TrEMBL record:
One GO term describing the cellular component: nucleus
Keywords from the UniProt entry: Methyltransferase, Nucleus, RNA-binding, S-adenosyl-L-methionine, Transferase, tRNA processing, tRNA-binding
EC number: 2.1.1.203
Catalytic activity from the UniProt record: cytidine(34) in tRNA precursor + S-adenosyl-L-methionine = 5-methylcytidine(34) in tRNA precursor + S-adenosyl-L-homocysteine + H(+); cytidine(48) in tRNA + S-adenosyl-L-methionine = 5-methylcytidine(48) in tRNA + S-adenosyl-L-homocysteine + H(+); cytidine(50) in tRNA + S-adenosyl-L-methionine = 5-methylcytidine(50) in tRNA + S-adenosyl-L-homocysteine + H(+); a cytidine in mRNA + S-adenosyl-L-methionine = a 5-methylcytidine in mRNA + S-adenosyl-L-homocysteine + H(+)
Domain SAM-dependent MTase RsmB/NOP-type as annotated: residue spans: 61-425
Spans through the membrane: none
Biased composition (Basic and acidic residues): 17-27
Polar residues bias (residue ranges): 700-719
Active site positions, chain numbering: 316 (nucleophile)
Name of the protein described by the UniProt record: tRNA (cytosine(34)-C(5))-methyltransferase
Alphabetized Pfam families for the sequence: Methyltr_RsmB-F (PF01189), Pre-PUA_NSUN2 (PF25376), PUA_NSUN2 (PF25378)
Segments for region (Disordered): 1-27, 429-484, 664-719
Class of enzymatic activity (EC top level): transferase
Length: 719
């Protein structure tokens, strides 16, 4: 118990009631708390004295803190389906909500966040309870849940969306997310890397870290929804995350990141609107305990940042001890190597308060200290010099702390938040000297830089880079040569297919799944296996069929990786229409003859085995989906089947005008036959597909019974 609590406190405890934590999953959608009195006199006394709220607005600030947080959603921006999702939300669900009343209360229609680009983020005051009171809202709720599961929508607090936007990500950037769980910001970073959907392997990547092993798997769940080959989840203490090496032109160099997201553990008093228990737990001691950890993580972040790179430091705390004090100390330690960036024009429409340059400390007993010289000796272990503003007026002015941004809840009906953008202009002072070599055989490129000097009087000594023994769940990559042989021919993979990027989890025995990572992540994996604890990386692109060789290849395509593989596949492709999509996703095992004439003709020319079912937009038909659809399937002897996870199947059905809902008693609505909707509802999840393709190999015996139940596609509900 004690050890687990310490781990949570070091890099995750504050986040459960802070930066995101469990509330990131709820994000205002009706999290149920017992009635807690939303009063904390110490909190009010503290922030009134610090004057972080403009004069005359404190009561409004406190009233906003006591109100429930609006629910917010974000549309996954990089996916080609984003415009279709936005169109569905605006033209179907939001219009229905506008004139809706429940128990005499008019429901407020969702509004786009003014500062988020391209109307990709929306907020509303509807709670989960309200969502379930009306059949129309219940359908909206099911839509949100389903689209969230397949990665097209994220339910994320509004202010949590700010740091990734301020990083200004480009597809070639190498990004470190230091305290990433539960992963909503990480998902944004991945989306930005994939801004061009026609590029399956951007040059950049995201390494997402968290100290808590269990929370790392929350992070994996978030990342897997996006099916990116450019994400790696690792498990380290962010304050001493190991420095990695990469091979360039035959020599090993230190990996420096173009962008670093430093969203540190915090006391979370900006989250009182959603984390109600913070009201009774809040004390000034929380910030005093976290300040040192926050500073160490920030220092480690800028150490690993490339010169000219950008780091965003953020907390969901309003307390300057966790905010400006950390930034001021970081700038002072950097001796001019870091600069605060003016980001005021980066998010037009965002209201914020500039950072403050004067603050003081208060103990939980109510004792105030304005300067380190006032702190009694017996409190020196709890209160440190770095918690106070710089005393030199010129130095303080040169830091430009007013460029920090503090978001107050009452200004735009959000949570409280703090963010600062830092640019690295040169090496950190302790990195400027030639690092000592660890042994005679070491070279300067592999030696570790010296650590920053310990703060005077803190009882710590400089430490060397900790050696890390990897107990990663991913083994070093093992290229699968068969992709260049039998299977490469079966799918007619193009000559530029990056076969070395195909990885397996194990060296021995038959490989069950094959994964792909980008070339750059493969480089990281190969050169850091002993220093890095990897939890997850790569996107699944192939799964093994038992006795699959008789069908031309032992591996069938996996839906998760179809958009990664698609640019390289030149065979086993059937071009389908909107009506074909409906048939394939509402019928269990349709006969080949159920397809349209063109698709039927293509299917008859193919041997049994794994296939790609490809829909291309028809620009002449504006009512049809205006984005491509790629489905994995199996061509049987006389039938055909799509292998698509349940929520993704529902997503594609919505795109082609078919809605499948359950009412409150669990009965289906929408006009489709029971068997069809059952198929849509009960399609295999990714982990349940393993034996289905093998069953399809003997589908001659199954066609009669399956077809008799599912050949009534004319009953599909089209909207």
């Amino acid at each position: 118990m004690g050890k687990r609590n310490r781990n949570r406190g070091r890099n995750g405890g504050g986040r459960d009631g802070g930066a995101e934590g469990k509330s990131d999953r709820d994000s205002g959608w009706g999290a149920g708390y017992a009635d807690i009195i939303k009063e904390n006199k110490l909190f009010e006394q503290y922030y009134q004295e610090l004057k972080i709220v403009p004069e005359g607005e404190f009561e409004e600030f406190m009233e906003a803190m006591r109100e429930p947080l609006p629910a917010t959603i974000r549309i996954t921006g990089y996916k080609s389906h984003a415009k279709e999702i936005l169109h569905t939300l605006k033209e179907k669900y939001f219009k229905d909500i506008q004139d809706l009343e429940i128990d005499g209360q008019k429901i407020e229609a969702p509004q786009a966040l003014s500062w988020y680009p391209d109307e990709q983020a929306w907020h509303t005051n509807m709670s989960r309870k309200i969502l379930r009171k009306s059949p129309l809202l219940e359908k909206f709720h099911q839509f949100l849940v389903s689209e969230t599961e397949c990665g097209n929508i994220s339910r994320q607090e509004a202010v949590s969306m700010i740091p990734p936007l301020l990083l200004k990500i480009e597809p070639h950037h190498k990004i470190l997310d230091m305290c990433a769980a539960p992963g909503s910001k990480t998902a944004q970073l991945i989306e930005m890397l994939h801004s061009d959907m026609d590029v399956p392997f951007p040059e950049g990547f995201v390494i997402a870290n968290d100290v808590d092993n269990k929370r790392c798997y929350l992070l994996v769940h978030q990342a897997k929804r996006l099916n990116s080959p450019c994400i790696m989840v690792v498990n380290h203490d962010a304050s001493c995350i190991p420095r990695l090496m990469v091979e360039q032109n035959g020599t090993k160099d230190v990996l420096f990141y173009d962008r670093v997201l430093c969203d540190v553990p915090c006391s979370g008093d900006g989250t009182m609107r959603k984390n109600i228990d913070v009201w009774k737990k809040w004390t000034t001691s929380n910030s005093l305990h976290l300040h040192g950890l926050q500073l160490r993580i920030a220092v480690r972040g800028v150490e690993q940042l490339a010169v000219s790179g950008r780091m965003v430091y953020s907390t969901c705390s309003l307390n300057p001890i966790e905010d400006e004090a950390v930034i001021a100390s970081l700038l002072e330690k950097s001796e001019g190597a870091l600069e605060l960036v003016d980001a005021s024009a980066d998010l037009p429409g965002l209201k914020y308060m500039p950072g403050i340059t004067s603050w003081k400390l208060m103990t939980k007993e109510g004792q105030w200290y304005s300067d380190w010289s006032e702190v009694p000796t017996n409190r020196h272990t709890q209160i440190r010099p770095t918690m106070f503003p710089p005393t030199d007026p010129e130095k303080l002015q040169s830091m430009k702390l007013e460029r920090c941004m503090r978001i107050l809840p009452h200004h735009q009906n959000t949570g409280g938040f703090f963010v600062a953008v830092l640019m690295k202009k040169g090496p950190m002072p302790w990195n400027r000297r030639q690092p000592k070599l660890r042994n005679k055989g070491a070279t300067p490129s592999t030696a570790q830089p010296e650590e920053p000097p310990a703060e005077e009087g803190d009882g710590q000594t400089p430490s060397e880079e900790p050696p890390c023994i990897s107990d990663a769940s991913e083994n070093p990559p093992e290229p699968e040569a068969k992709k260049d042989g039998v299977c490469g021919t079966f799918y007619n993979l193009s000559s530029d297919f990056p076969k070395l990027n195909v990885l397996t989890r194990t060296h021995e025995g038959k490989k069950r799944h094959l994964y792909m990572v980008s070339k750059e992540l493969r480089n990281v994996l190969l050169n850091n296996s002993e220093r890095m604890k990897v939890i997850n990386t790569g996107v699944k692109v192939w799964s093994r069929n038992n006795d699959g060789e008789q069908f031309g290849c032992a591996f069938r395509l996996a839906q998760e990786g179809i958009y990664t593989l698609n640019p390289y596949i030149r065979a086993r492709v059937i071009n389908i229409s909107v009506e074909d999509v409906k048939v394939l996703l509402t019928e269990e095992n349709p006969f080949l003859s159920r397809l349209g004439e063109d698709a039927h003709a293509q299917a008859k020319k193919l041997e049994m085995g794994s296939i790609v079912l490809r829909y291309q937009p028809d620009l002449k038909d504006p009512d049809a989906p205006q984005c491509p659809i790629e489905l994995c399937g199996w061509r049987g002897k006389t039938s055909i089947r799509a292998f698509v996870p349940r929520n993704e199947r529902l997503h594609y059905l919505r795109m082609v005008g078919v809605e499948v809902f359950k009412d409150k008693q669990g009965k289906k609505e929408g006009g489709a036959s029971e068997s069809q909707e059952g198929n849509a509802e009960n399609t295999e999840e990714p982990g349940q597909e393993e034996d289905t393709a093998e069953q399809e190999q003997s589908d001659t015996e199954q066609n009669g019974s399956a077809q008799s139940k599912t050949n009534n596609s004319e009953d599909v509900s089209s909207t």
